[in-house]
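Researcher: Sequence recovery benchmark, item below. Answer with residues only.
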């Protein structure tokens, strides 16, 4: 390991460098957590909420997810099968992303419905459209400040 100290314009920086072989893929302290964008391909294949959550490092267990009154999951209680509008809002400071999952997907289908990274805003607010074919409970998960929060909503799906 090499240490290089740089003093410029009255500021000092310490740069720690290692030989290229040891540095490849290295992250000082620990490995960085995966981003929502990097997890999307695997999230879209997850056939259950547990499988989707296991992709995050560290993976939250259900006791670490707090139900929150500071989240809004607004969907119609009864909707025609097909595309359904959903309004998602978080008033939790430091909201990192929205993750919308189907808690009871049809056999062989993904539980993933939608996801959106959020800039660090005081109030995160988005509208999405999801596709449902049968009655289900939808789950909104939000990570903020390293903690997980949730809210659920039942949607009854009818056909013509």
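Model:
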């Amino acid at each position: 390991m090499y240490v290089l100290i740089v003093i410029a314009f009255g500021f000092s920086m310490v740069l720690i460098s290692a030989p290229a072989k040891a540095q490849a893929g290295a992250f000082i302290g620990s490995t960085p957590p995966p981003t929502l964008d990097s997890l999307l391909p695997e999230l879209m294949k997850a056939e259950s909420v547990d499988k989707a959550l296991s992709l995050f490092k560290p993976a939250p267990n259900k006791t670490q997810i707090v139900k929150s009154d500071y989240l809004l999951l607004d969907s119609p209680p009864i909707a025609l099968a097909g595309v359904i509008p959903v309004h998602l809002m978080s008033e939790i400071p430091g909201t990192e992303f929205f993750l919308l999952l189907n808690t009871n997907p049809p056999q062989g289908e993904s539980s993933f419905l939608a996801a959106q990274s959020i800039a660090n805003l005081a109030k995160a607010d988005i509208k999405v459209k999801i596709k449902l074919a049968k009655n289900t409970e939808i789950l909104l998960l939000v990570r903020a400040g390293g903690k997980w929060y949730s809210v659920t909503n039942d949607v009854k799906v009818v056909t013509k």
